[in-house]
Design a protein that fits this description.
- The chain has a domain of 71 residues.
- The longest helix is centred in the C-terminal third of the chain and has 21 residues.
- The protein is α+β, with helices and mostly antiparallel strands and 102 residues long.
- 34% of the residues lie in helices and 14% in strands.
- Strands 1-4 form a two-stranded antiparallel ribbon.
Amino acid sequence: MSDVFVIRNQHGHYWGKSKAWVDGSDPRAVLRVKHQDEGINTLVELSAKDVTLRGEVMPAELGPKGEPVLEVSDTPLPQPVAEADGGADAGDSDSAARGAEA
């Protein structure tokens, strides 16, 4: 029997306590639940928000420090959408300002 359960997506990322995907390099940041059904409920909620999500609730043993022993994902984490939009908006406002000057 496992000590805890964690949620992992198709990229090998884990659902974090901060409600964002993490790569598993810091096990303290990974959400862990004591009961599998709690993990399944969370996964259903996540899947309802992201239809492309392919996740699983998997058992994880706890290490000597009480943190889950996890395999770190090789896939880079996606960049937050706000940062990507911020760069595009800044470029648009600069070009609009140049148009107004002309």
